[in-house]
Amino acid sequence: SKLTSLGQLEMTWRSRVHFYPLLVRVLHKSRLRYYGKPEKKLDMPYQAYFEVADGSGMMSMVLWNSLCPEWYKSIKVGTVLLLEQYAIKTSYPFKTQPTPGDSQMKRFTTIEISLNVRDPPTKISIIPEEMVKPEWGLPEVKYRFITRSELDDLPNNHSCDVIGLVTFVGRAERARKREHGEDFWLYRWVHAIDGTSDQPFILELFATSQPEVFEHIYPMAYLVCTQMRVVRDLTENPSSTIYLTTSNESQIFITGCHKGQPYTKDTKVKNFIQWTKTQREADQMKKAVIGGYYPFPRPPNNFLKY
């Protein structure tokens, strides 16, 4: 059938009601958002953002309500989609923006693709990777992997991807989303090493929409975290309190999930795998720790400062 591109959509969307099908690749995936309220009677008040791209650039795509439980888990980073009977809306201005792996890619930020069960009923098709043709011109997923030795030079809030061997997993902890609210964020602290530094990556991993991964992080697993943000305390000693935290678009992968993921082609990932082959498992196991209380960032040495 006749296809359109994201670039053409941006130029012509105001003058059209029906749009030609789109062929896009998913580059980023947000966590699932629940927006239910007691007074609103919606069956499935869910929403998820994806950043999708074709040869002309990148645009946000929003999955609404009952389409979320049906499609959220099947649409992964790297998945190629054929979209038919979708709607186009002006963009929501306050949503988070992931940092693209390809900084040259054009971003269309005025509109977003809206996928709904009705008005119009969207048809989503997943194209298997072996059927994707090079002439479609779809971009590859690109990453921004860093090593632990590079982390100390990165500025606060810098976006990056990391891979490491897990040496410590803290217990799951809760933090209130709002001071007097009843909603909590669930998170845990994790240490991972990659052989480029004596120091580990210190990772603050919030429970994203991947409970099957979050609950099963264990020492000696190969851990990949994408779209992490650098946090450094600029007031005290900046190097002592540097850690990485998850963002709205972070994805977490552990041993058993890596097969077929786009990052397996990345040079830094291949270098890490080479390094692990030089390590003796028994030596790393001796240093591995699980559970317990982990106060971080650490409180000051004396009580007055505290």
Structure characteristics:
306 residues, mainly beta, OB fold (Dihydrolipoamide Acetyltransferase, E2P), eight-stranded mixed beta sheet, five-stranded mixed barrel, 6 helices, 15 strands, 34% strand, globular
CATH superfamily label of the largest domain = Nucleic acid-binding proteins
**How confident overall, as mean pLDDT?**
91
Broad structural category: mainly beta
> Strand portion, in percent?
25-35%
Q: Write down the overall geometry.
A: globular
**CATH fold title of the largest domain:** OB fold (Dihydrolipoamide Acetyltransferase, E2P)
Q: Round the Cα radius of gyration to an integer and report it.
A: 21 Å
Please trace the helix and strand order, writing H or E for each element.
Answer: HEEEEHEEEEHEEEEHEEHHE
Uncertain ranges: none
